[in-house]
Batch of 2 targets.
Target 1
Amino acid sequence: EPEVTQTPSHQVTQMGQEVILRCVPISNHLYFYWYRQILGQKVEFLVSFYNNEISEKSEIFDDQFSVERPDGSNFTLKIRSTKLEDSAMYFCATCPGQGYSPLHFGNGTRLTVT
Amino acid sequence: DQQVKQNSPSLSVQEGRISILNCDYTNSMFDYFLWYKKYPAEGPTFLISISSIKDKNEDGRFTVFLNKSAKHLSLHIVPSQPGDSAVYFCAASPENNAGNMLTFGGGTRLMVKP
């Protein structure tokens, strides 16, 4: 069964550094998302992306965050200047289309900001 | 933000018996509901969904029930198997964004004892 692939599985970075989290969507999927889960808390929506632009974003997704699909395959989440509170599991998710389609999640990247 | 709430953080069930996981929501704009299962170090895996035009959806051992008037949904697993032991999340999506921007509950850890 096709999978959403995320790299790296674990990223450790110092506060203030930039990080890029990568995701390879399922090949025929058109909608891409980032969610995160801070330890002990709920899974939270960050951003949705379709047709090379952001379609929706949450309050969490501030100016420190950006997404792009630079080469038509990878879908990336960049955090420009990491903060301690950015430490979380970041999940990429994709779905084939809009309209009652369940999201397919990757296994996540654990980001630790020290 | 408690729009989707799972009041039981954990549930223990004997193998072969029924597992019932519950979920309540407050936002009347939600009209698509999903259950995801999550193993440690993996992303959420889609299990089953239901739209608000239905009150029941069944897939093998898994059945989801929706009570719109009570803003309550439940997941029934019968018979429960040890491999079902995982964290189960319910999630909901508003009618103008079907399936795409999910609001998650806090999860219920199911333990199925052999």
Target 2
Amino acid sequence: EAEVAQSPRYKITEKSQAVAFWCDPISGHATLYWYRQILGQGPELLVQFQDESVVDDSQLPKDRFSAERLKGVDSTLKIQPAELGDSAMYLCASSILDRGILTTGELFFGEGSRLTVL
Amino acid sequence: AQSVAQPEDQVNVAEGNPLTVKCTYSVSGNPYLFWYVQYPNRGLQFLLKYITGDNLVKGSYGFEAEFNKSQTSFHLKKPSALVSDSALYFCAVRDLDTNAGKSTFGDGTTLTVKP
């Protein structure tokens, strides 16, 4: 069964350091999402890509967070510098979204990358 | 703006009893509604969805959910709970009338099924 791959699963870093997360969506899924899940809360959308283009990054803290999906396949989310409040689970998800047509598709999530900032 | 409310942080049931996990939503247009389950330190897994049609939808692991448009609710149910159903459950909504595809999640309900 096809899966969304994420790495690393766990990351411990000190504040002010840089950290990066990688995601490889299910093959053929045009839409890719990065969510942040703080303990005790639901996932919150950080950024959404349609192919290589950003569709929604309104909740991405752009002073320290960046995301790219250069070839429209895998994606990287970077934080620089990391702050204590960034400790969370970072979830990548993908879905089928045909160009110009909204499908009814559910999201397929990876296992997540748990970040701890000391 | 769209939103989801899960009014119960925790639901406790005995094994073999029916369970209900509540969800209400708010969207400006017609909703797509989803339930996901999350086990500790794992990603979310899709359980079921309502798009259109029959208000009672069936999903994985014997779960079902009932869409109620007048009450803007989409409660998750199972006739007979198993200890293995213990997990964190999230309700999510997508607004049918926007095609950005953004899903908004509730804060989750922890289901504990006791033997």
